[in-house]
Design a protein that fits this description.
The protein is mainly α and 269 residues long. The protein is built from ten helices and two strands, in the order H-H-E-H-H-H-E-H-H-H-H-H. The protein folds into two domains: 192 residues, Rhomboid-like fold (Up-down Bundle); 31 residues.
Length: 269
């Protein structure tokens, strides 16, 4: 039992440390957003000045600051819990790509909103939330590991109602952020689909050896990467090699058909 607990993969201490590491960044992120809201409440500044103003040069700053500001406490509360949970899930279950995936969703969602959305100021972290939901869900489709499929099912059950937010013409809601965040989440999931976690690789896969064997193809895999002259030269070299092998085989056959006389056999000339 001690060997099992002290092993590198099953140690309770390692699991606990990984859990704490997974919630450290989400806690810092939520704390930063709440501090911004407190400062906004105390100073009374207009959060729209820090949002993503589409196709305005000064609005580019909103790609970084837009998700950090919210229009009201209700707006902040609606984003706090899902942002924390989804970010922690991503860090815990997809630690190899988690931070890269998060910042890809964060930045690309903001950039997409700046390019395609209505010319108003878009604020709030809901675009990032939708991107994370989409990322975790589509991992179940692209990766097809048991764990990713289970996570996709959990996310679908918990946050399926959120997808009503991508419908257009909703007053006071940046549905563009929701829609574009979801699309960016799909792209991010596809981009990192080959970087599987250790737990997603099946060591007992009965077809692993078969897939590892070199596949036989009708044409060489690099046939379209070579020039016509290279293919002609290779064909000529192969022809010459085959002729040499045939000549060599014929010579060997002749030697077997006309064996040389033994040394003790008399010869007449």
């Amino acid at each position: 039992m001690s060997a099992l607990i002290d092993s590198e993969t099953d140690s309770l201490e390692i699991t606990r440390k990984h859990f704490y590491d997974s919630i450290r960044f989400p806690l810092f992120l939520i704390a930063a957003i709440w501090l911004v809201q407190l400062y906004q409440w105390g100073e009374g500044f207009d959060p729209g000045m820090y949002g993503i103003m589409s196709r305005r040069i000064w609005g580019l700053q909103g790609i970084l600051t837009g998700p950090m500001v919210h229009g009201s406490w209700e707006h902040l509360l609606s984003n706090t819990f899902p942002l924390f949970v989804l970010t922690a899930m991503t860090l815990y279950f997809y630690k190899k790509v988690a931070m890269r995936a998060f910042w890809t969703i964060y930045l690309l969602t903001g950039l997409s909103v700046w390019i395609f959305a209505r010319p108003v100021s878009h604020i709030g972290a809901s675009g990032v939330v939708y991107g994370l939901v989409s990322f975790i869900f589509w991992n179940g489709i692209f990766r097809r590991s048991l764990r990713s499929i289970m996570l996709a099912a959990i996310v679908m059950i918990l946050y399926s109602g959120m997808f009503m937010g991508i419908l257009p013409e909703q007053e006071g809601i940046s549905w563009e952020s929701h829609l574009l965040g979801s699309i960016v989440g799909i792209f991010t999931s596809f981009w990192f689909k080959t970087e599987l976690e250790e737990e997603e690789v099946r060591p007992d896969d009965p077809f692993a050896d078969e897939r590892d064997q070199q596949k036989q193809y009708f044409l060489p895999r690099d046939v379209f990467e070579k020039t016509k002259m290279q293919r002609l030269l290779e064909a000529e070299a192969l022809r010459i090699q085959m002729e040499q092998e045939n000549n060599s085989a014929q010579d060997e056959g002749q030697q077997r058909y006309f064996p040389p006389p033994s040394w003790n056999q008399s010869q007449t000339w």
